[in-house]
Batch of 3 targets.
Target 1
Amino acid sequence: MSPVNSSKQINRAPVLEPVINDFVVKFANVNGSGSASANSMFAKAIFRMGIPVGPRNIFPSNIQGAPTWYEVRISDKGYLGCRGGQVELMVSVNPQSMTQDVEEVCPGGYFFYDNTYPLDFNLIRDDIHYIGLPLTKITNNNFEDPRLQQLFKNIIYVGSLAYLIGIEFSALEGIVIDTFAKKPKLVQPNVNALQLGFDEAKKAFANPLPLQLKRSNKNDGKVLLEGNAACGLGAVYAGATVCAWYPITPSTSVAEGFEKYAKQFRVDPQTGENNFAVIQAEDELSAIGMVIGANWNGARSFTATSGPGMSLMQELLGLAYFAEVPAVLIDVQRTGPSTGMPTRTQQSDILISAYASHGDTKQVLLFPATPKECFELTADAFDIADRLQTPVIMLTDLDLGMNEHICDELVWDDSRRYDLGKIMTAEDLDNAKEKWGRYLDVDGDGIPYRTIPGTHAEKGAYFNRGTSRNEYAVYTEKGADYQRNMERLEVKWATAPQHLPKPIITERDTTNTIGIIHYGTSLASTHEAIDQLSAQGYTANDLRIVAFPFHSEVEAFIEQHEHVFIVEQNRDAQLKTLIVNELEIAPKSLKSVLHYNGDPISARKIVAGISAILENQDTSANVA
């Protein structure tokens, strides 16, 4: 038998120096094989050991049978952005993808595979190590049911890794107990499968790998959470009672998360009746129409969608902007245009969201970067929408929405009260000295007062129009009336930043000439890249945009730095375009670092882009 097919490690490749809590493990599986839950157990067990971990599920858009990957970055320093290559340990149990999987292993790294069957010699590299364990044989010898064989094969290789890289077995046991809390009969069989994998690996390999895990305390006060689930929970805490949606990857679990949490917190304890409604509409147009209608009627309502849904919602977003009806929309961005790559991530809905609908429209945007911010900004979005009487669009993305990320524990101030903005009650209307006008600006901030339908049959009623009207909601086609209304909306737009979160600025040195602007999930990789640039002699300050319209700090930051780089995950430099348009910044003063292949941006990509521009001093360059 060839040594490649042996269960013994091949020692002809360079040996990695011992590494503790700083490497990448990547799993290569078949979609629909049940591997995701086993791989998730792997990541969660490491998290419970107190070690920062960043898991990413890389899955195809078909339902079953195609290759899928699950990448886990382990970093005691907290560098959890996509590393973009350099996989130290590849666990490849899918023959379809083995050629690609072998290529991704870094020199000196390890390729763990099922050696029940011979390995193709075309897959052999002289600079990596091969670790074979007969997973299929072990599984078949211990389980008779074909479906159980597939499921427990995944659990067995996780048990093997526990021995090879030092996962505490008690941490894995705890995850199994929690996972099957509602199905306790499944706990022991899964623990037995883990133990089986551990014992077989220990029998086959005299020594564990130099890639080792050591208990840490870096996760104290932290949780692992998906962004979509955090958005759903944030909507519940914001007082949302209506969710109208149409299923679309990768936003579906926002609505599912809202329903899950609403069933815990929005059920009348006396009657058992739901105090919420989740409506699956026939399409995205209907969904946003229901949301606008529910908000106009006084409920807090929202929808969740992705790029194609945003395209369909344009006209009704314009109606909500012009009629000044609050609404919240969570856009979990994916790779476009058209169907694009629906299970890959991107930041490419910036412009379609900022100027959603025809005519002169501008929409409020929020950009969370962590699950904690998904929770907090979703809750804030409803208050902002009510204060400004306009749609608020929160832009997350697939990487944030559908992957678990480490974040601080969620906190809620129980003394917080919902801010409904400028509401006229029946008493207010009766006591008003002057006639109330639905679109009348009496405070000079561009925001009129509104009533909830039914507030006052005589003084509070008005027609909510998508057509031109005067200050008293009376239909008109007079150009002067229309122009006054549009100019008032501009005043409201200028007022909006007062109600929005400010950008987050990290100033490392006031003498720095390099400034980096980023937003959303570029956060982790940008901060890692800044540390790497510092090692090369470049120091940089950074500004993270959290909301649009922009605060004055964005323009000031640009003016303070000689070199300003904008990091974004799209082809057309959409944030740069927005900054140039809105702040009237000279385009050549901004340099773009762009990434748009569907994977999350890596620090390596950012460093390469910025270094190339600085070294060439090409102030007009865009680096993709």
Target 2
Amino acid sequence: MTNENSVQRMYIIFGAMLAVLIGMTGISYRTLSSLGSANQWNIHTYQVLTELQGVSNGLDNMQAGAQAFIATGDNDLYNIYLKGKDDLSRHYKTTLSLTTDNPRQQQRLKDFKSEVKNLFKFYVPVISKRRSPQTAAQAVALAAQQASDRESALAQLRSTLNDLRGEEQTLLTQRTQSEGSLERWAHITLIADSLLAIGLASVLSIFLVRSNTLLLETNEGLSKEISDRKKAEREIRDLHEYNEQILSSTAEGIIGVNPRGRITFANPAAAKMVGWDAQQVIGKPVDSILERDMPNATLSVTRDTPLSASMRDGRVHSMADGNFTRRDGGQFSVEYTITPLREESIENNEEVSTITGAVITFRDITVRKRTDMSLLRLASIVESSKDAILSHTLEGRIVSWNAAATKLYGYSPREVEGCSMSILFPQDRTEEVAYLLDKIKNGERIEPYQTMIQTRDGEPIEVALTLYPVRDDKGQVMGASSNARRIIRRRADEQLPVYLNELRLVKDSEQPGGNGQHTTEAPTGGAVVGS
């Protein structure tokens, strides 16, 4: 009990010292951060002072160049004036962007800009006159008249500029003093952190010695550890039984194979698919239940097959289309995956991984292959049809398009995919397209009727058009299929085939009982339906 109390006291001391060390470290971090910020502000202030000096130099060059040009008319001196003006503007803009945090300096800079504009009132007209030989004398006389006012404006500019520099110099002095204080405080906190770390290390050493003594006196806990281990073993057995239940309930076939190609286990789904009892199949060669007549699909471990490759390289191998053999000799299509099993061991102080078998997971894809073949045959029939066949969504967006549609309409499948089917109709038949889409949304079939379509080249063509709603597996209408066949006219008095109907478009507002009734009929006339 004495040792336990001592350890508890050590815990308290250690925790207290650790808390103080963490607190002091936080203070040191904040101090160093503040020191870094102060240093950045000093650099920032130096930048402002440098830009203000650039403003002053630009002002001096501009004023000197202007006066010299007025006196002599030398264009080189005029260029000095222009360069000074550009330097003044550039450094002013930079200073303005650097002092956004100081409203007072921003206001002074705005005053400075106004004073510069006031100075330009004197320079601009004089320089403009001086550049012309006819008015040079007038410029010199005007400059002499404005000399007093110009010098006054220039003096005001310099005063404002001195105020700006004085403000930044004061800020620099204050921040330099603050930086010095922060440096001294940072040194103090770092020394305190070092002393606390040394003390903490000493307490930790003592604590470790006392803890070792306490551990030697607690061997009675071993019995509890043994009990816990037995409990863990029971949990492992329960987990094994749970995994067995999962294997038994899964719909996929699962077979285990050892390195010699013998089956070590098979779940009920696998046994049912190959026609054996799950217990009967254990111990049999894997070739006794898998296909043997086609070497490229055989999984024997004695040949260069996916199973032998998995046993050799320790990787997962798959086949999307294979064939397995049932007990009665019949074959069925499967897709399968072979996953190697590994066992880790220690040999010569090194970890060694050994392949101890493989797991074959497979599923019967016979029904799926039949469905795929049916879809391929259906697609082939649609593609080879002489009728122009296309499918579209309920909004009229084209989804598919056969070769006959390309021939009739002139568009390639890539050109029309995602486009509205209204591009196939003349502009005066937009109501017809909306009417057809409404009928399809209601699940109605549009019987063959005569209408006009428009080819890619803008040519109008008469066709016999039929639309069928397309439904999903729940019976909901998801789109439509359109079938069009060209009508080739022979004689004006020849009648249309009897199966062609008249398409009547009746607006809702013009139904009986509304404001009026209006019916649009597709034109009829002699024609012969042809491809």
Target 3
Amino acid sequence: MTNFKNEIAKLISNAGNLKELDLESFIEVPKDKQNGDFAFPCFRLAKELKKAPQIIAQDIKNNLELPNKYIVKAEVVGGYINFYINKELQTEEVIKSFSDNNKSEIHKYGKSEYGNGKNIIVEYSSPNIAKPFHIGHLRTTLIGNCLYRVYKYLGYNTTGINHLGDYGTQFGKMIEAYKLWGDEYDLTTDPINKMMDMYVRINDLCKKDETVLEKCRENFKLLENGNKFEVDLWNKFKDLSLAEFSRIYDVLNVKFDSYNGEAFYQDKMDEVIKILEAKGRITESKGAKIVDLEDRGISTPCIIQKSDGSSIYATRDLAAILYRARTYDFDKCLYVVAYEQNLHFKQVFEVAKDLVDEKYAKGLEHVSYGMVSLPTGKMSTREGNVIKIEELIGETIKKSEEIILQKNPNLENKEDVAKKVGVAAIVFNTLSSSNIKDQVFDWNVALNFQGETGPYIQYTYVRTRSVLEKIEHIPSVNEVNIEKLNDEYSLNIIDIIYNFENILIQVTEKNEPSILARYLIELSKAYSAFYNENKIICDDKETQNARVFLSMMVGNVLKQGGYLLGFEMPEKM
């Protein structure tokens, strides 16, 4: 389809003799359509041209060769030039994008090869083995899942990695807990909650008795050294945990290409230390091996090996970077991890500059997000005050089913619909605000099905399906008279649909799923306004064909957008 921004940039470049500047990146979309479809802020040129923005705007406007095939007019308002595009051309191009030749893949609208040839790694979810999957894991899981799907949809070669927390001193604690109380627990049923109970108990004991904590550290060292009892017990904890996690991932439609966690890099850490030592980056401090980062603006050193010879998170992350560079040749490696780990990733990324080629070091990105807390305060698995994901999913699906029974008691497949609606409520509630914002998890908000929610998007989709069910024949592109779509409600929808691929590109540029979430709400609202103001099934066949086709397009974009965000559409509600 026509890139109208690019066409405007070419016009401005010719009119102002500004060929050296990236003008397309300056162009904005006004919030109010009264100010045009696109706007060019001349403030960005004031320093370059040494003129007032208003004068620059008028000078450029006077030299624009308009109207042309793409742009019908331009107006100066203050220091802006507002551009109005050829709506007929835009409508025609959007309609043709849903041509019959592509009918079997019609829901793939906006799919492209934008990222072709580039390798992207998304590391997300990464729960700790032997601990419950609680709402603190929800944001990393759902943000990462959305980014994984969007990058893939735009043609990137994308790899999703679940970097399991399956190593560290915590396992020394779990092993000690099992040695002390293993006979009290039957791990064949409800294993995660029982392992969590053991973990809370051992932490309480460690606080009271330093010798117990020392035994936990010794257990971890035995595990690192490959001692059979500790390794077998660790494998048991891991297998039980993965079975539980998989059930949750299945409900949330989350998938990974790799489950290589921290333990996978156990035999790969020595090479990291050797490379850093060879480059003179490692020094000793109180028996520990560290990389001093003062010279790079980070006052806290990066610990590479503890004084007892055991590894640490940073060592395993560095080993993972080295392995991923060699294995995946990545252009970007995204870490979807809470902002509490900001310092950790600053340190690791800085040390990585001495470990891998510049290309890989530059491609490391921490996609940080705000913490999730309860109205009563911060959660902690050590204290045992968490809301488990299974509880959240179960309650939300139950609430969804109650609402469905009230609204449509005769609906078939109520359980399946309730599951889809419940998951949509959770996904949208999690992704609709920007990553960096902290979230207080409130049951009343999460289970509210009114207003700007996932279920509202699903309801709009179902409404489009209802329109299609009422007619015998879905019109083809050749049967659509675009002149019947020139009212403000139809044109608004066309404009939003036209922007779909650009929205997905923005999601990847900012690694921000909320951009897509807000887009789906905007499209849903636009269709609701169109639906309320226009009679779709009517006597005028041409008008009906155009409006039915528009409904079909909206439904397909909502369905695909919902999938990319992380939820499915029911056919009826």
